[in-house]
Amino acid sequence: MMLSDYQYFGPICFIELVYKQNQLCFDKEAAFTKMSFKNRMVILSAQGPLNLTIPILGGREQKTAIKDILIAYDAPWQAQHFKAIKTCYKRAPYFEYYEADLEKLYATKKEYLVDFLEDCHQFLKKSIKGKWELTDGKKNIIDNSNKLEKVSADLEINNIQKTMLPWQPNNYAQFTIQHPYLQVFESSKGFIPNLSILDWLFCEGGKEISKQLSEPLK
Fold first, then answer.
1. Does residue 45 sit in helix, strand or coil?
2. Which of 6, 21, 61, 185 is the most exposed place for a label (fewest CB within 10 A)?
3. Helix (H) or strand (E) run with residue 204 in it
């Protein structure tokens, strides 16, 4: 099982790591931190990388557990994010295949940040045909004799080793991804690695992503 922080359509390195997991558990008790992908993603515009940030109530400095973070709706951020994505990727080969579902996702108003992030994760998992199970630690596992063994419903999240993700919004491009691809604005901006998984999804499609991530590394 991989334990990780929540990601707002996380960078490609995150998806490359998650795809080969059997189980994924998001840490709902982790403190919200301002410099992270918990409420931010980076897409590629004609002018270069573009940060999209989900506004939250209480300010950016709070250390509240992410499960208690509320989304702010003082500004129409959902419409703004969807418009930005559509503007940046309307010429991408596969954007039209995901546009309707993505628009529906951004039309749904969620009170808590984690609820919206989990909806984003389910959209992504379906799009790239991910087979991992999203769990909260309260589940059944199969032992060596292939018999179901009940795991305590009170399993402490601290008993699971957390995967510390090194990439952040201020350094994501320093990390090399395993499967480069042709980006929409590559001819003018050059290839920028480790953008939001949406960049790869719209440029190559979920079927191709699934194929590449399923292949063993050379």
1. strand
2. 61
3. helix 197-204
